[in-house]
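Section: Multi-chain targets

For targets with more than one molecule, the full set of components is provided together so that the structure can be written out for the assembly as a whole rather than chain by chain. Components appear in the order listed by the source. The example entry contains two components.
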Amino acid sequence: MAYTEEELKKELETKEYEYGFYTDIESDTLPKGLNEEIVIAISKKKEEPEWMTQWRLEAFRAWQEMEEPEWANVTYKKPDFQDISYYSAPNKKPKYNSLDEVDPELLDTFKKLGISVDEQKKLAGVAVDIVMDSVSVATTFKKTLAEKGIIFCSISEAIKEHPELVKKYLGTVVPQKDNFYAALNSAVFSDGSFCYIPKGVRCPMELSTYFRINQAGTGQFERTLVVAEEGSYVSYLEGCTAPMRDENQLHAAVVELIALDNAEIKYSTVQNWYPGNDQGKGGVFNFVTKRGLCEKHAKISWTQVETGSAVTWKYPSCILKGDYSIGEFYSIAVTNNFQQADTGTKMVHLGKNTRSTIISKGISAGQSQNSYRGLVQVNSRAENARNFSQCDSLLMGNRCGAHTFPYIEAKNKTAQIEHEATTSKIGEDQIFYCNQRGIDTEKAIALIVNGFSKEVLNKLPMEFAVEAQKLLEISLEGSVG
Amino acid sequence: MDLKEKLVSSFMAFEDGLDLDHPVHEERSNAIKNFETKGFPTKKDEAWKYTSLKGLQKIDFSIFPKQETTLEYKDVKKYFLHEIDAYKIVFVDGVYSSYLSETTHDGVDVCLMSSAFSKPMFKQVIEVYFNKAASKDESLTSLNTAFSKEGAYIYIPKNKMPKKPIQILHLATGNEAALMLQPRNLIVAEDNAEVQIIERHQSLTGNEVFTNCVTEIFAGKDAIVDYYKVQNDAPTASLVDNTYISQKNSSVVRVHTFSLGGKLIRNNLNFYQNGERIDSTLKGVTILGDKQHVDHHTLVHHAQPNCESHQDYKGIFGDSSTGVFNGKIIVDKIAQKTDAFQQNNNILLSDKSTINSKPQLEIFADDVKCSHGCTIGQLDEEAMFYLRSRGIPKKEAKALLMYAFANNVLESVRIPELKVRINKIIADKLGVRMGFDL
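Its structure, encoded as tokens over all components, is:
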């Protein structure tokens, strides 16, 4: 064996966050703190119409009345909401016609991330709407999409150019007052993506955005809205990495998906925000509200790979409103060192003959805590609702914890609900078997973890699957023998 | 005056009749303070999310029954498991009935908490065990501790086994328009002892009864305790049953709960494994109709290595009934090689019935086998068709399938007469006479 267990552990713990760098781009930052003036200032900076400003203020007023939720199985020092700057935009932001014009420093950043725009361009025709510090900097493939009538732009652009669509759908799935972080996001969201697929159109490429927190001390408040009209299809990717920061950074995003009759939305996430160092210092707080609404025969599928963030609080949900609608949730959550994750899903069955599937894989190592929290709710009118849930946990070492909190509520006698959960560790015999065949322990663990998460990895689009596998390896290499 | 105020203010009056120098006095005073701060749990408490005690708090319960009532054995015979010979500890409106009871001090102690509190010969046991397993934090348990005075006291010394099972029966006569009872039981099985206990709460009329019961069970090394809870009360009777079990090395404790009737039943069943190679079994059958509400809250705390726990709860819910299951398993860091299994299966028979299930695992050790399964479904239509095609009427076929569904739990009942009795109650509930002895 090349390594001893101790050496492996040491190497893992000291392994620097590979993507931890900080790009020095001049930013236009608002003063710290949050009050009505700041909210109005953000809205002004974004040149938003009056109704949007009012909408934000409404959210802000609701937020002031709310209390930070404490029910999640995570402990952290609560962020001081008055000590955050709520707006920061890169200063040099002319609209580029080609990539050559883009700030070379920025391009370099993306290269370090291994997601260079030109490479993405080549890769199976992925259009990338790069969001760096809250303002959309580069959008490619817009033309191809425009021909099909697909709108894919930043949300601030959408507010200006397609106000009727934004007005109609924004906040319908996640209302301003939904929860503490959603309200905060509604008040101060700086940017995000908007995607509209017209009736009967099948989006020819995977749409993707990369989020990045860059400026020190600014929280990222992204707002994503995806609307799939009747009979349309879209696959949407979202990926995150963040530079190394010592103070905790706050990330409170809201994602709303709307799938009208017969539409299908596939939403995939790879999240790798900075998790903090091996002492549990620093790292991103990730408090996200994601929810999708399914009309008749519609389908929403969430796939997520969560490897980063110091604290994760995230429950991508499906409201199965229409008859025969389908909700799916596939998740891998990996925690190491002092990371804490409380993640899962909500499947709310309202329509008849609705179906949902939940596959959740939790892997915890180091001194991390990994929780699955899910809700399956069958309302009294949801005839023949069907749910299958499976949540498996893998523990590495005895200093970490795995928890499951599945809530199952059935109010209809025709409901059929199954829930299974298991907890296990990597078998010594499995590792021995690999060693015997000349595979060192580190590789063997990667292999076994990959096998454990295969059901979810399989659901990811190809280029994401590669990235996700890499992330799993980085996060877990040699955690335990 | 609401119920909380009433209880707190009657505590003084309650204490007047008691020995204030007794060590239990301090426990009681601390407990009433805790209850006073916390009050009755509300739906805002995570553990009481699905069960509300609001309705009960509006009723003007009398806390101390005014008069003693004597009952004839023949009138209450059917509530006993009279087919077998057993020790009996019977309480009528919370007061011990020596006439209906049969206690013993022959090798083992099967008697009363009131005498255990007052007689010096029991003092040591009370000091070592009383209120040592029960939660000092949970408000209803505290409420019971504050008013702890009467209940069953069972002490089985080392290597002993009582000659026959023990029945604990709490009867409510309905002399009071609304009665609140707070029995407190203490069961100690020392090393290598064995005991079988059947507990039942029964209201004899349609008057409101609210029982807040606490039972502490201590199982020494290699001890075996079988505890059966029969909950088939009148539709006006509510029960909060708190059971705390502390186990030592290689002991076996099995608790079976049959929730077949009552207005509101809340079972808090807590197992603490304080040793190695322990085996804990928690099983339950729930069959409900009308507007009944049953809430099973279980906790198994694996604190030492090499232990096992088995949970199996089956529920059948008809009419507008509501079922809640919340099963929590905690595996501590050092509890390696734990084997914890939990299963909860439910059938909804009507559109108005509801089931809320929350199987919860909290695991801090890596070399463990923990799994849970939870299902909500209906009777298998193909199986129904199969039975019907063989000439079995729909009602019987349905009953047969439901019986089969619950049978896993019944199989492990170790008193054959009790098994027969439960089967009869189930058949009754399902409204059929099956042609064979179940």
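The mean pLDDT of chain A is 79.
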